[in-house]
Amino acid sequence: MGHATNRVEDMASPNTGTATTRETIVEIHSVCLPPKKTTFQKLKKRFADVFFPDDPLERFRNQTWRNKVILGLQSLFPIFIWGSQYDLKLFRSDVVSGLTIASLAIPQGISYAKLANLPPIVGLYSSFVPPLIYSILGSSKHLAVGPVSIASLVMGSMLSESVSPTQDPILYLKLAFTSTFFAGLFQASLGLLRLGFLIDFLSKPTLVGFTAGAAVIVSLQQLKGLLGIVHFTGKMQFIPVMSSVFSNRSEWSWETIVMGLGFLIILLTTRHISMRKPKLFWISAASPLASVVISTLLVFLIRNKTHAISFIGHLPKGLNPPSSNMLYFSGTHLALAIKTGIITGVLSLTEGIAVGRTFASLKNYQVNGNKEMMAIGFMNMIGSCTSCYVTTGSFSRSAVNYNAGAKTAVSNIVLASTVLVTLLFLMPLFHYTPNLILAAIILTAVIGLIDYQAAYKLYKVDKFDFFTCMCAFFGVLLVSVPLGLAIAVSVSVIKILLHVTRPNTLEFGNIHGTQIYQSLKRYREASRIHGFLILAVESPIYFVNSTYLQERILRWTREEETRVKENNGSTLKCIILDMTAVSSIDTSGIEALFELRRRLEKQSLQLVLVNPVGSVMEKLHKSKIIESLGLSGLYLTVGEAVADLSSTWKAHGQP
Amino acid sequence: MGHATNRVEDMASPNTGTATTRETIVEIHSVCLPPKKTTFQKLKKRFADVFFPDDPLERFRNQTWRNKVILGLQSLFPIFIWGSQYDLKLFRSDVVSGLTIASLAIPQGISYAKLANLPPIVGLYSSFVPPLIYSILGSSKHLAVGPVSIASLVMGSMLSESVSPTQDPILYLKLAFTSTFFAGLFQASLGLLRLGFLIDFLSKPTLVGFTAGAAVIVSLQQLKGLLGIVHFTGKMQFIPVMSSVFSNRSEWSWETIVMGLGFLIILLTTRHISMRKPKLFWISAASPLASVVISTLLVFLIRNKTHAISFIGHLPKGLNPPSSNMLYFSGTHLALAIKTGIITGVLSLTEGIAVGRTFASLKNYQVNGNKEMMAIGFMNMIGSCTSCYVTTGSFSRSAVNYNAGAKTAVSNIVLASTVLVTLLFLMPLFHYTPNLILAAIILTAVIGLIDYQAAYKLYKVDKFDFFTCMCAFFGVLLVSVPLGLAIAVSVSVIKILLHVTRPNTLEFGNIHGTQIYQSLKRYREASRIHGFLILAVESPIYFVNSTYLQERILRWTREEETRVKENNGSTLKCIILDMTAVSSIDTSGIEALFELRRRLEKQSLQLVLVNPVGSVMEKLHKSKIIESLGLSGLYLTVGEAVADLSSTWKAHGQP
Questions:
Q1: Sorting pLDDT into bands at 50, 70 and 90, what band is B475?
Q2: What is the C-alpha to C-alpha distance for residues A216 and B263, in angstroms, rounded to an integer?
Q3: Which of residues 332-361 of B touch A (CB under 8 A)?
Q4: CB contact burial B98-123 (16+ within 10 A = b; e otherwise)
Q5: What residue ranges in B538-655 does DSSP mark as E strands?
Q6: pLDDT tens across B422-471, in order?
């Protein structure tokens, strides 16, 4: 099959009757095998593709030893990249943004810890150590680190299913730290083993649905604080929570409801203002702390008049106590701790990476996924030894950080310093902080997580993605948090498999006067060519679809023969398979091609393959199918196949 | 973007320096949207593609009512298709082949029942009712129906893990019939719900490995019978079986070993002869029965001299007793029965369908997968009520049936009649049949299942398929039968996902003097075009790869810019993405394209999409990305894109 130039007349005369006789010179190109590679080389390339798609060693090439050491340090500790150019102007910006996020982080920290059924102080501990560690290891400039609502909720719901946080608070705390340790270990391992791509399996539709479902659950949980209910269900699902709300109507306290609703309206209004005008970000950033101060004062003033409003109570002063002695690696609850760790780890990682990438993209810098995973992972591992629970980059606080003008990770150091001062001196001030204000703060934060616009867009563009989103939403709401997530991931994976199991096949025709072959259904200009049936397969050919494709192609052939007979057209002689979109093939696929050729041959039909991609060509070659197809069984383009075969038939005196 | 004809000079001047200035008329074609369809229409088409790819109602169109009824009956009971044309000549062939397979089926039935830890008589029952039912419902002409080794082994190993067949034989028998019922129910449901494609997930490499592994296990189990060991492990894995063989060396009986080896050699030799010369099929077909007769006689003659050789003992005379009262649908073992039913159901279905297709393809007739599933399913459901355990089409007996000249399913009726006679009159003759001969028959049958040639071919053509095969083999041999199967299926599915997660991207160049664009690495004739970077993505763009592809394309761009700088070439201006092989896209993929365009724009680079397929084009349109790409952002072919953009640049006075 070398080069050959054929003069072909009337090569593209479609049977619409409008064909004109022309002369065209068509050069026939042979189909090349890809450059030869050993199995080891292929494995190496595949390995690099899977684990090192960013080519992390690229920057180290052609560098002196000294530079290599500096680059190595910089890649381990991004602080070395920006640290040397740090100046007073940057510092001023970072102090402003750091203080702003601190005013948000302190009330949120206390609230989210309650969401995870943990003592409020743990929320503050978790806003002190992790930001410090992230500022050294992290590569995002805008990520504001601390506890987040989703991970807190998931940890709370999963752990409290087995251990009661009120009856056995020490064991519960131990489990929380142990889960945090495993979350960190899992995150750091994903980064170290460069398996970060696994979090891509949580697709955006899954996350939109899951987050919205979790936000609804969290909001419903806040009814406890906002209505002043004392006896509340420990369950998370929609139905038990609602029945718990209404069966305990006697416990509703009007003082709590009035005050709670008042502050909720203030918080929602300030949030709305800041969303409308991003420049006024400080209004929504300051309002939680302001609400905490005002509500605490109010409760303090009326403390002798009513006992209907519950408040936090005593909080210990002082820095994070060490907690490495509270981790445990044996016992009945170890499996639960590992499971909780992995799920909260994946979720917090996904949030952290997504937030980091969002703001990096806005300011046009790179956030390396695998490195971020290690940073977040180490942060949680160290956190678990210093009384912190799972932390990551929070979307709402990072947005405030960005809008407040944060320039580097120093804003996280400022945040940590402010929390430090609070822990050392200000804890007694929170004694009379009412629980209702924490509920209102959480509610305001999580309402923003229900992204109905994104869901609507999914509905418009891709119904299946919308379906995945709904599976995640209702799965979380009605079944359980981990199962809802599992259902949504399975649905997304099944979609991929279904696409391969039942691939599209298209019938192609020639666009008159060109060498372009396109779908007959889609392009009206395209028309069939006498004697040929041109089919394009739009998927790899694998064991899951090889039988289907074989049957489908035979059915196309039967249908075409019927059509030809009805129209008294010239007989079908050749099936051309355009393999351009067949990106891969396995042994079952090759066998199906063999079988297809055999069955077509029995009907005196020729099978021709066009433009197989490199890896497919290689396997076709190895399995000797190309020899069996014969000299005129493989072409580079459909046009060349049509031209060459037509001229051969003409030479043999066939019509 | 209507039609436009541009006169472009020097449009394809590769930077190799060999370019010649030419004049080419390039017509620009617009990219069409596919014909508009509502969501319902799309769902309907998708539904038909998944569940009715064979268009089963096609034959009913344009028929009279009377014909429709006849066609309907024929499609439910294939016996109506061939029944009316049946004649004496066909009958003669069927009697010969039916008697031949009966001589094989009787000893094998008894042996396989022992493999499933069931009373030998159940094997004969299972060779009587199921062939009768299959002859009415089945569409294969050559399938010989009865118990098979793999399904027997799997049922035996799964059930005996929970219930001992020696200590609680009644419960064990009940479980076996219940599993058979569920196997049939599952098989029939797959067919009725047209979910038959699910068995395609058991790929050929998986089956080759699994079958070989199971065959090794079965062979090792036969050491019990061949060595005359009395106390044998109930486990199936390699290590416990081997240790059981050698720790019970005191029980080895030399009489059994000598006689067993003698018959084994005879059986293997006759098998070898028949494989060499298919015409002598009757030698291997007759030898098991002959061996049974001779060995029974021998044992009968020496019955007073030695007791070292164990034999079957008393077998009840008479037809299949009803067993519907032995099915049970509640209780602790129900889950086990369902699980065993599903796994044996899938395995026996896969074997039956594969065998049916193999012989149908040799004689060029069609076997409809879904209909076969219903036939096999009903056969097992009825079987479970008439004291039969799981049956399907056996490969070895079907091959004998084919070689013996079977013409229709009547050979199965002849087989059943012969078994009937045996059951009614000949059972006492099997009293002294030694267990060692059953072991030798099983061993001879399963050795043929180890298809090392297929494994070697997998190794040559597709290393990954070979890996899957080995996973199945060692999984079955060392872990357990269902887990080994699960591991192999997971590995094959992960391969599909991995291919999508890390798709290939290729850099394209122009083959000089043509409109063909092909991989630069593969085609030496192809060369780059000034100012363009042409990339082809070889996979759907989904959530699992959208981030990767975005980063990968940006890396291609960086590398190309470095290359251009080093060679002092003209600056890069445009990235062309050839979407021909992107067979599908989801919302994450679309967002990645948006983000890619945004980031390229920041580097003053244009993004152009070429030839998106119908469904992709539709989603691009709905998400408004096409508007955002601008007028010159979408072309039908790479050639047109290059030509049009070059001429635009020239018109604007750019180099």
A1: very high
A2: 73
A3: 361
A4: bbbbbbbbbbbbbbbbbbbbbbbbbb
A5: 574-578, 606-610, 634-635
A6: 999 888 888 888 888 888 988 888 888 888 999 999 998 888 899 999 99
| pLDDT value of position B26 | 63
In this complex, do A595 and B361 lie within 8 Å of one another by their Cβ atoms? yes
Q: Which of A586, A603, A615, A635 to mutate to test the interface with B (most CBs of B within 10 A)?
A: A586
Structure tokens at B62: 């344009």
Rounded to the nearest angstrom, the gap between the alpha carbon of residue A347 and the centroid of all alpha carbons in its chain is 10
Q: How many CB pairs below 8 A link A and B?
A: 219
Calculate the alpha carbon distances from B181 to A597, B342, B373, B384 in Å. 40, 10, 14, 5
* Residue whose pair of structure tokens reads 């790819």 in the numeric block: B53
8 Å CB contact of A499 and B361: no
Instruction: Name chain B contacts of A518, Cβ cutoff 8 Å.
Output: 636
Structure token pair of residue B522: 């593969």
| Helix, coil or strand: residue B330 | coil
**Interface touch B34/A519, C-beta < 8 Å:** yes
pLDDT at B654: 62
| C-alpha–C-alpha distance, residues B212 and A259, integer Å | 73
Q: Residue A80: how many CA atoms within 13 Å on its side-chain side?
A: 10
Q: Which of B505, B370, B401, B481 is nearest to B55 (CA)?
A: B370
> What dihedral angle (degrees, nearest 10) is formed by the CA atoms of B478, B482, B485, B486?
-110
Where residue A9 falls among pLDDT bands split at 50, 70, 90?
very low
Residue B480 CA to its chain's centroid (Å): 20
First to last CA, chain A: 24
Min CA distance, B33 vs chain A (Å)?
A: 7
Question: In this predicted model, which residue has the larger pLDDT, A104 or B9?
Answer: A104
Query: Looking at residue B477, what DSSP letter applies?
Result: I
| Burial class, B561, CB count within 10 angstroms (exposed 0-12 / middle 13-18 / buried 19+) | middle
The predicted structure's pLDDT at residue A72: 85
SS3 content of chain B, % helix, strand, coil (to 5): 60, 10, 30
Residue count of chain A, please give it: 655
Q: What is the pTM of this model?
A: 0.82
d(CA B55, CA B72) in angstroms, rounded, equals 14
Strand A526-527 with A532-537, pairing: unpaired
Contact (CB, 8 A) for A377 and A344: no
DSSP state of A502: S
The model's confidence at residue A240, banded by pLDDT at 50, 70 and 90, is confident
Determine contact, residues A541/A583, Cβ cutoff 8 Å: no
Task: Give the separation between CA B263 and CA A35, rounded to whole angstroms.
Answer: 55
Quote the radius of gyration of chain B (alpha carbons, Å). 32
Specify the DSSP element, H or E, that contains B241: helix B238-247
Task: Inform me whether the pLDDT recorded for A341 exceeds 90.
Answer: yes
CA gap B48, B42 in Å, rounded: 10
**What was the ipTM of the complex prediction?**
0.83
Distance from CA of B353 to the nearest CA of A (A): 12
Q: Phi and psi for B527 in degrees, rounded to 5?
A: -140, 155
Q: Is B561 on the interface with A (CB under 8 A)?
A: no
Question: What pLDDT, in 10s, does the model give residues A610-626?
Answer: 999 888 998 898 888 88
Contact B544 A200 (CB under 8 A): yes
